């Protein structure tokens, strides 16, 4: 029972990720690479999780379970592994450190923390 609830929650989360990134990709200010990766992650999980779950619980012949389930697991695992990379890209886009600086590496930003700094 809890596995079904977990898979259902992951499908809802992946669906939200897909729809949110589809909507955000149409705005001009959202980074295109984040939108494309988010759409892939959400879409792949929405497509992959139900067949993988059904293949795991159904009493079908082994070649169907391994074929359908294996394809679902492979696609879902690829999206699941890509999800942390989405967070990395989001952090890069949110940071205000330039990608390249002429003349060498960027100097560390000085933070004004405390009275004496």
Topology of this structure?
Layout: H1 2-25, H2 32-57, H3 62-94
Question: What features would you describe in this structure?
Answer:
The protein has 117 residues and is an all-alpha fold. The protein has one domain. It contains three helices and no strands. The longest helix has 33 residues. The relative contact order is 0.11. The mean pLDDT is 82.
* β-strand number: 0
Q: Please work out how many helical segments DSSP would assign.
A: 3
Strand content: under 5%
pLDDT < 50 stretches: none
Radius of gyration: 20 Å
Whole-number count of domains = 1
Query: Mind summarizing the main beta sheet?
Result: none
Overall residue-averaged pLDDT value: 82
* Helix-strand makeup class: mainly alpha
Q: What is the first-to-last residue Cα distance?
A: 56 Å
Order of helices and strands: HHH
The rough form would be described as elongated
State the share of residues found in helices, binned by percent: over 70%
